[in-house]
Amino acid sequence: MTTHTVNGVTLLLKQGNIVNVQVDAIVNAANAGLAGGGGVDGAIHRAAGPTVMQECRQIGRCPTGSAVATGAGNLPARYIFHAVGPIYQNQGDEPQLLAGAYQACLNLAEHHQIHSIAFPSISTGAYGYPLHLAAPIALQTVITHLQRPTSLQQVHFILFDQRTLQAYQKALQQLLTNGHA
Ligand code: ADP
Predict the structure, then answer these.
(1) Which CATH number do you get for residue 114?
(2) pTM of this structure
(3) If you ran DSSP here, which 8-state letter would residue 121 be given?
(4) CA-nearest residue, atom 6 of ligand 1
(5) For a 10 Å CB count at each end of the chain, is N or C smaller?
(6) CA of 31, closest atom in ligand 1
(7) Where is pLDDT greater, at 181 or 124?
């Protein structure tokens, strides 16, 4: 586990399963159809129960690079923010879309005035975003947001395997070394 403080807000990098984390909002790496799927999406819907899928069906769709909020069903959270990251195809717009997915969740956090949020590593599973490119975008977007006034007190990155945790730790170290965090 790694912790770092930005402007009084705790940033935590930790290996684990996001469905077990006690925070106000859990972020899901969803697809644009909000249709559920494998990976973290499947795990969250299984743990949350059917009410969350019902809410997703009512919302309908979410554009890539954005996010929508639902309740959290049986999860120990108030909200799930369903964020849609890009499928990595090296077309050029992926960094903006990935940053947009994180930023949309941070905006929802401010809108709902929540104190804690947990992110998975959006797009780096089935969507194929290279970890060494995705990790600095995820961290930079969060850190830049925390440098302004915020309702957030804790931001967790819950990383499923050792390889993903190490990529985020390395990216944070590089951002700190380069003076961006
Ligand atoms: P995407 O389609 O956005 O790539 P995936 O769910 O396939 O989403 O993968 C995103 C990341 O989430 C991967 O690093 C994967 O290992 C991780 N992951 C899978 N299950 C969980 C879970 N329960 N908690 C946290 N992270 C998870």
Answers:
(1) 3.40.220.10
(2) 0.98
(3) -
(4) 39
(5) N
(6) 2
(7) 124
Question: Which single residue is written with the structure tokens 């743990």?
Answer: 47
4 Cα to the center of ligand 1, angstroms: 23
Tens-digit pLDDT profile for residues 81-138: 999 999 999 889 999 999 999 999 999 999 999 999 999 999 999 999 999 999 999 9
Residue with the two structure tokens 């969740």: 105
Task: Give the C-alpha distances (Å, rounded to integers) separating 133 from 22, 103, 150.
Answer: 28, 17, 26
Backbone angles phi, psi at 27, to 5 degrees: -95, 135
Pick from 26, 135, 146: nearest CA to 77: 26
Cα–Cα distance for residue pair 19/48, rounded to 1 Å = 8
| 171, containing H or E segment | helix 162-177
**In terms of residue numbers, what domain contains 158?**
2-177
The structure tokens 């973290």 sit at 40
Alpha-helical runs (H) found in 31-116: 39-48, 50-59, 94-111
41 is catalytic: yes
Q: Please give the single-letter amino acid code of residue 92.
A: G
Given the residues 24, 41, 93, 161, select the one marked as catalytic.
41
Q: What's the gap in Å between 160 CA and the centre of ligand 1?
A: 7
Output the six-digit token pair for 9: 């807000």
Ligand 1 center–CA 124 separation, angstroms:
7
Q: What number of other Cβ atoms are within 10 A of residue 37's Cβ? A: 16
**How many domains does the chain contain in total?**
1
